[in-house]
Amino acid sequence: MPPRKKRRPASGDDLSAKKSRHDSMFRKYDSTRIKTEEEAFSSKRCLEWFYEYAGTDDVVGPEGMEKFCEDIGVEPENVVMLVLAWKLDAQNMGYFTLQEWLKGMTSLQCDTTEKLRNTLEYLRSLLNDSTNFKLIYRYAFDFARQSKYKVINKDQWCNVLEFSRTINLDLSNYDEDGAWPVLLDEFVEWYKDKQMS
Question: Which CATH number does the domain 147-196 belong to among 2.40.50.100, 1.10.238.200, 1.10.60.10, 2.50.20.10?
Fold first, then answer.
């Protein structure tokens, strides 16, 4: 039996095959594009997210903050909230203004609870970098101060960090004639007296 001749595709067949491949590629591209749009940061989505906690105000207050912390799975006193406040450049503890929220969340590229949850480890990791830690530590002084009455001034606050990083636990390398504030001199004196008794 003679071999069968292969049927040569008609010109219409060739076009429909190309169209089918093109449609398939377009659907694949289109679904990728839709997925990317969902993953891409959206100012509108970020704004809607803000008002879930702010209600009709232009500020997330203590009640909204409590719900926000609950939604992201973080206790309000967790240090990661301080890092987040630093990233948002929040001026008052327990409050995020609309402007702070939009600016900070845009820089973090977070417009949903889920995206922020996925960013928490990154925020925690910022504390491991000594430069960022120092910036966050300094920021905490003004952020946490609720009244104008100062028990400790900012210079003393910053010196406590330097003290904790440079002085041995047994205080053996503490120089009493150094340029430490009186507050730290008094602490060292109190600590040494306590060790002797």
Answer: 1.10.238.200
Q: Which of 73-79's residues contact partners 24+ apart within 8 Å by CB, and which partners?
A: 73/117, 74/120, 79/124, 79/127
Stretch (H or E) spanning 81: helix 79-88
CB 131 within 8 A of CB 123: no
What pLDDT score was predicted for residue 144? 75
pTM greater than the 0.85 cutoff: no
Angle, vertex CA 15, rays to CA 11 and CA 17, nearest 5: 115
Class of domain 43-141: mainly alpha
- Rounded-to-integer distance, Cα 151 and Cα 191, Å: 20
Q: Which two tokens stand for residue 5?
A: 């001749």
Question: Hey, where are the domains in the chain?
Answer: 43-141, 147-196
